[in-house]
Write a structure and sequence with these properties.
binds adenosine-2'-5'-diphosphate, 347 residues, Dihydrodipicolinate Reductase, domain 2, six-stranded parallel beta sheet, alpha/beta, Rossmann fold
Length: 347
Amino acid sequence: MSKDLSVAILGATGAVGQELLELLAERKFPLKELKLLASPRSAGSKIVFNGQEITVEAVNEKSFEGVDIVLASAGGSTSKAWAKRAVEAGAVVIDNSSAFRMDDDVPLVVPEINPEAAAKHQGIIANPNCTTILMGVAIYPLHQVQPIKRIVVSTYQSASGAGARAMEEAKSQARDILDGKQPQAEILPYPIAFNLFPHNSPLNEQGYCEEEMKMVNETRKIFDAPELKITATCVRVPILRAHSEAINLEFAQPFEVAKAKELIAAAPGVKVVEDWQSNYFPMPIDATGQDPVLVGRIRQDISQDCGLELWLCGDQIRKGAALNAIQIAELLLAKNLLTTSDSAVSV
Ligand code: A2P
């Protein structure tokens, strides 16, 4: 990495924004300036980064002047409102929202899977949906050896997937229930504490919710496999952080379990966690705060000769969002896919 960059985080006060800050510090991302942008609600609040207090600004017309990379995680409508202006100002936007993911001229990148796609960017690179990233890094090593024919996935998604306020809501609902009070649901549609419900994103005419269709369409785009058959059921569960997924894979030929384990264990971004003696496999509490996706219970599907079953847990705020975005930024830097600006003011 040759040059320090001016970076703006759009949505810096949110769950993913906070994780982006942690990762920029932890990975020693080469920064010459860091701008923290959010809504007018947070303007003027202070966030400490690397021992230095930075004032959060409300995003505005001038926010992107001199900025090289915008890490955007403030929701689709905010990205739609600001991403193109940031690109016009000379920045590359790594967008965590779903606003541009399926646009033909926007690469959808998971660095462990399709880093080459990043080179085709025209100012915006999309960070895929969290459950899609976690599944992708776990199964792509198998797909590379023998193309997957069909995926059946069920997800168990934590409250923080709906943002920092949803996580707080889950905690206060749990307190209320334990105190014998009625839990209040304001951010999520129904009480999540001691409960679960199918993902509440909008449903299509076939009965699939948006989250499920993201897994279908985005996996096809990232794998460059438009014909890949995928069906998903996404469920919100009373977990604070880290998503889990039960995945069934079908191949054209039998896939030897030992070989599958070997491939997954050797793949970047994944860690096999299996102790069959003590029935110990990936759990959200172990995945929380971790970079790798934890994969286990890799086994033959007893209902078909050409099938495998596996289970994973991954921190959806890290690899499912912030870490993947930072890895894309590191990739842009390493492959010289940015035009850096010299006009930013040093901090
Ligand atoms: P704010 O804290 O000022 O509302 P989460 O996904 O955890 O809910 O976080 C969402 C992030 O997106 C927050 O940083 C939030 O800022 C930011 N955000 C939401 N709406 C806007 C907006 N209209 N303009 C800029 N930032 C926004």
